[in-house]
Amino acid sequence: MVRIFVFIDESGNPFENEIAFSTAAVWCVVERPEGREKPLKPTVDSMRQYLRDYGKMEWAQEIHHHRLPDEYSEYLLFQAISLSRRDRTIMREGIFWERSPIAFTITTDNPRAIKAFNPEMSQQILGNRTRLNALGNLLRPLSIYEGSERIQVELILDAEVWKKCIEKYDAGLKRTIGNQFINPAIHFCRSSITPGLQIADLAAGINRQFTIHAKQESGYRLLQANILNRLH
């Protein structure tokens, strides 16, 4: 059975003071899974070494978009895509998409607008609804999958920010994306030890910066060039 790992992280917050809650998913295919911390580790280790080489030791502990100047964020995204082509922890050929061994889905929600149309909605429900909307969009390639190959999907989310919401609605989420060919499993991990989540954080931050400020356009265009619309 094919095993797809989907790492999901966010930028911004899902509450009413926010106009752009950005989320991103990093997709890769893993032939022999050895834990959720192994895929993409060589890629992220090289990205961190690049920061160390430039004397940015505080940025190299864990890759976080909000710590990085624009030019570093965009170059690290370029590195992630380029280095993944040599990363032996993931499959690089015969996968469900073209271009790079890693693919992206990105989406942006507007919690302020959701709240404006639903003024009676509590902050907790607003946050949950915003996150679930985002997940539905990020995981659309699974919902529209028309192939006949069975796929085990490992959804990996940042435990710090996603766990409370998803544990409450995990059955509905699995029904949304699961079918006779897709078997989803949900995991919550610490981003500090999960390389795929660090790349997802980078992608979500670049998407948000472009959406709100029209900044980091080169990084945004790179994301768009590697967007996953459909599993082939």
Structure report:
The protein is of the alpha/beta class. It has a single domain, classed as Ribonuclease H-like superfamily/Ribonuclease H (Nucleotidyltransferase, domain 5). The chain contains 9 helices and 5 strands; from the N terminus they run E-E-H-H-H-E-H-H-H-E-H-E-H-H. The chain has a 5-stranded mixed sheet with strand order 3-2-1-4-5, with helices on both faces. Helix 7 links the parallel strand 4 and strand 5. 40% of the residues are buried. The model has no long low-confidence stretch (mean pLDDT 92).
What secondary-structure arrangement, pairings included, does this model have?
Layout: E1 2-11, E2 21-29, H1 41-53, H2 57-60, H3 70-83, E3 103-109, H4 111-117, H5 123-138, H6 140-143, E4 151-158, H7 159-177, E5 182-189, H8 195-213, H9 217-225
Parallel strand pairs: 1-4, 4-5
Antiparallel strand pairs: 1-2, 2-3
Helix pairs in contact: 1-3, 1-8, 3-8, 3-9, 5-7, 8-9
